Automatic annotation (TrEMBL), chains A, B, C, D, E, F:
Catalytic activity: tRNA(n+1) + phosphate = tRNA(n) + a ribonucleoside 5'-diphosphate
GO biological process: rRNA 3'-end processing; rRNA catabolic process; tRNA processing
EC number from the UniProt entry: 2.7.7.56
GO molecular function: 3'-5'-RNA exonuclease activity; tRNA binding; tRNA nucleotidyltransferase activity
HAMAP family: RNase_PH
Top-level taxon of origin: Bacteria
The protein, known as: Ribonuclease PH
Entry's family note: Belongs to the RNase PH family.
NCBIfam families: RNasePH
Job description of the protein: Phosphorolytic 3'-5' exoribonuclease that plays an important role in tRNA 3'-end maturation. Removes nucleotide residues following the 3'-CCA terminus of tRNAs; can also add nucleotides to the ends of RNA molecules by using nucleoside diphosphates as substrates, but this may not be physiologically important. Probably plays a role in initiation of 16S rRNA degradation (leading to ribosome degradation) during starvation.
Keyword Thylakoid assigned: no
Gene3D superfamilies associated with the record: GHMP Kinase, N-terminal domain
Binding-site list for phosphate: 86, 124-126
Length: 247, 247, 247, 247, 247, 247
């Protein structure tokens, strides 16, 4: 039995609130257990310098924990004049995850700014951010699409994320903070509706993992991704992504 | 008639949610119209260097707007490596307002960290922050007081804030963003339950104001502060602050 | 009797030296008692990005204390890589004060950079900065006006500042540092020759003030502003601002 | 056939120079093909604040590319006042990899500083850094061990890293820059001599990968890690790590 | 004939005002022609970490140009978050110059902070800073010495600085800005009353100088140093430095 | 006898490796005794803002010590968010030295970026950087010249640098670290093949030097520069710089 009574392959309760703030083109408040993240997607009609004139778009993500999203108050980055290394790592991960399912050429010369602000952290903030940000991204893209349809709809696939790990010798899914802090192995898995992997980020810092352990964790991760993508579809009230041309 | 149908001396609807996050000693989500601010108060058992060994406590405030709390996405301070000047001005104001009603000697060698993170901005974020942060501060102080009573209860008075201004020739209270951006005069008023003023910050940048206009605005402000303090009391389910010794 | 022998409604001795440095378009060294501030105004023929193409000008102020302008050496901002919060607050105040009496459309696409560098601080550096910077601003604007007259002369009114406060139960004007550090209430008042208020920034951090106290302090402030504007006129050898068109 | 004539499962030529600089306790210049990294390990007799008094040691890594290690000159971080996000991600990876095979309690209150400075980059700089830094770490630890033996020898296992990817439909190992920039999938694999995985960081940003592709890449990675660990042993002239107590 | 009518070996008019500000232990306003620098020396009863417990003192200098000390307004360092390279070079030079004539052991565990703030720049700001800062340093040291005499008086010698250069083929001393900007060679010479050199910093960036030119410039420099040291003595009303023990 | 057995006028062994890295237009690894510096020169087809449209080029240098190039690990500048003052001073010196022998008009609108990264430091890193960077600069300029000849070959003269000093009463050349740290006087001399001086930077911080000592040190420096320029010629396999037009 897990600390919060869940089964090993059971993810935490998820609650998705779309349209959470009124200005962002896509705004999702996602709660996975006690982890709560506000994911806002903003659209800007220009691209970073390295893409200028290439007819392609870009997706960039920023991740931030509010100071008291954690048990001990976390000093703001600006007070130290440095972005925390972990924050950097996570926001790069979110950006890669979302770009992997978006056709940046179809998007055209736009930048989608994805802001994931953690309101309360209880483990899995990076996977929660990805799963929630994808929903906000769909809302933002659809907002444009309704006003002025894309020739090719730019989102190619659903993408979601979950964590798996080995806790007290058990392979479990979607670790809460208390599990995470005692896990022997901790792995973040990001994948699509088609069962393909976008990124597998497994860390066995405390103790390495065998090939067999890795395989079992991947099996578990696949189950979690399916659950999460179903939740995304329900929240979006969509069975499938918009298909084909904008006409 | 005002843009949102309110009367001149009517503040916007206020909603207060206490205990919004689970870690902070005091955590209040306050909504004043469409302005929404998360106010978290954290307690630290040490004081800044300039107070070490003096037996006094301190209250320090940080204010921050989430990037998409506004109509156009605001670049994070850390991306520019600079705290925005307006942010600095506001967080200093919040700190002064709260310190004015707290007996820092009675508080003892503790620092209260007040984090006001604006989730959605529609005018009056600084006054909303002060009004909400006071409630969170009471919760945080009472949490300590219940565990280990203060000899003298350190909060001396209620404090709240509101804005007043001259919009289209009318003197109005609690300006929303649209009113604020066309106001001839804009003034923030911070005061106590006893009808005393803690800070009066009036700016007539567009056009100066006469002494009579100032007086009428102060009258209006007094009405708004009363309404806001009543709301604070209802939210806290208290008629008065804890009185006397902790015994 | 006040600590330096002044009467309650008497401001300190003021000395104004125009043309203090040879490069700045307007350069004023102002001494109010032992507070000494160098106010330089520079003219730049471009505007900040948010005003580009709007045909309007801008006024921006920077305030800085030299390291040994104070009793204890103050570390330079650059050594900490951060602008001090108080500095930010003050330079924003100076900017708003000056913009309130300038017709930015009449100024056209120019930026006036106002640098207030405190050489020696003995209370009231922000009000001294405003009073001195206004004189330097007039000199800078007139320098342009003589070379190539504005269609509409852009300065609409005199503006000056002074402080008032309650010290040892007495309401006094233009507090020196020693008075300021024991004041129960401290308020900065900025106003025009017409007796209108531009900004009223009253702080009762130590103890709130009643409405009546506020009124009496405003009365006192009005007297101080008149004295200071007379001094400005004498320094500028002008009875009134340039009027009408440049022809 | 690969661009440089290698077979799919063949890593590039590796050259290891120990004792490259004279001051560092461990100093290794490692060349993997045209990728060249200087790995210096320094020992400091204190630990970061979060470990003070716990009797444990720490390993921290810094990664940096020299400005002209790349085809286009890269601006130094200090010129932008920001650590590059990719750099952050990599130095955290190096730190985790090395800590996973070191018994930090056995190390005692020491910090090992690992500096990986890329002299020339041609793909795989992060995996090269890990493989080279491990050798330098062994040299540094042995230097202490010879002078004053540890009770328990703190290095528990060899650790090395390599990359695998799918290039032109072929699964290949140890990608050079040109392969890397056209790879459909790119994965960094870090593992021990015992065939266990420390971290698996697979990114399918361009296109996700199926479970079968992932499995085949892991197989390939295992082969590469064996080759690299053999090279590490040859360079160190050791068949196995020092075992048991220091007596 | 030089641009301002001086002879080749003639330095500009020098005016020294001691006790310019009231807080600094030594405060000198020095004017060399139109170059005007405020030199404040502050005493702190502690030393930088690298000297702790060694019983020695330290002298550290900071140099800064006010924004409008120059023809075109100079952006403040803090606005760019970087100390200008030239500023760094100069403040290191000032520090070395002053330390060269002070017995840091005799000074004991104190830091002398030397702040040179350029009010107006017309060439030779670094040499003016050194010559003026020395006078302020003497005042600061004597202030301590009078209160609590040093066992050994810590200032060993007078030190001053001047510049020499080749302008329009003529070797001249103490270049003003206009001369400096057309000089073929420009050299700063720092020396003592005994005719010894502390630093010779000759730059022939535009065109190298021959050994003979160098010799003639050094001859000229020696003359300038003598003039400047006489001025220092007159300003200090001292013929010689305090000698011997404090008893 | 010197600590490493050299004669007073003997420079250390010098080893020059051209083409050290494969990307830089000029890449030289220079070893002077145990001091080892990688000097890379990169060419960029644009100039800094202050030269735009003037038809001239620019040379800018960056100097950096790798963290473990020294006996005690040096914290990276980016970790402190500040460029070290000594670093600033040195990179400005390198830039001036190289610009003094290059005809920037003949170079045309190009920037030469000179990166001197110290791999191992044992005294004289700044002079080693200049001597090595000049060779890399010749290689970079010749690379352009071969592809598209300059009308006027832009390098006018060889430039090299060495240090001289007074150690244990002896005047010696090319000080190693141990000598440098006990030197009474330390001077860096930069000069051309024609025996002209580009910069003479003499510091007698510990104790000033007499005019006669200065003369003898300059004599010694001239000898060292000749030796170093001969080494540069041998490394470049050139007796003289490319002369005349590119046709």
């Amino acid at each position: 039995m897990r600390i919060d009574g869940r089964k090993n392959e059971q993810i935490r309760n998820v609650k998705v609130t779309r349209g959470y703030t009124k200005y962002a083109e896509g705004s999702v408040y996602i709660e996975v257990g006690d982890t709560k993240v506000l994911c806002n997607v903003s659209i800007e009609d220009k691209v970073p310098p390295f893409l200028k004139g290439k007819g392609e778009g870009w997706i960039t993500a920023e991740y931030n924990m509010l100071p008291r999203s954690t048990g001990v108050r976390k000093v703001r980055d600006i007070a130290r004049l440095k972005v925390d290394g972990r924050t950097m790592e996570i926001q790069r991960l979110i950006g890669r995850a979302l770009r992997s399912v978006v056709d940046l050429k179809a998007l055209g010369e736009k930048t989608l700014w994805v802001d994931c602000d953690v309101i309360q952290a209880d483990g899995g903030t990076r996977t929660t951010s990805i799963s929630g940000a994808f929903i906000a991204l769909v809302d933002a893209v659809n907002k444009i699409h309704k006003e002025k349809p894309f020739k090719v709809y730019p989102i190619r696939n659903f993408v979601a994320a979950t964590s798996v790990g080995i806790v007290n010798g058990e392979k479990v899914i979607d670790l809460c903070y208390e599990e995470d802090s005692t896990a022997k192995v901790d792995m973040n898995i990001i994948g699509t509706e088609d069962g393909e992997f976008v990124e597998v980020q497994g860390t066995g810092e405390e103790s390495p993992m065998t090939r067999q352990e890795l395989n079992e964790l991947l099996n578990l991760g696949e189950k979690g991704l399916k659950q999460m993508i179903t939740i995304q579809k329900n929240a979006l009230k969509m069975d499938a992504l918009w298909i084909g041309t904008g006409e």
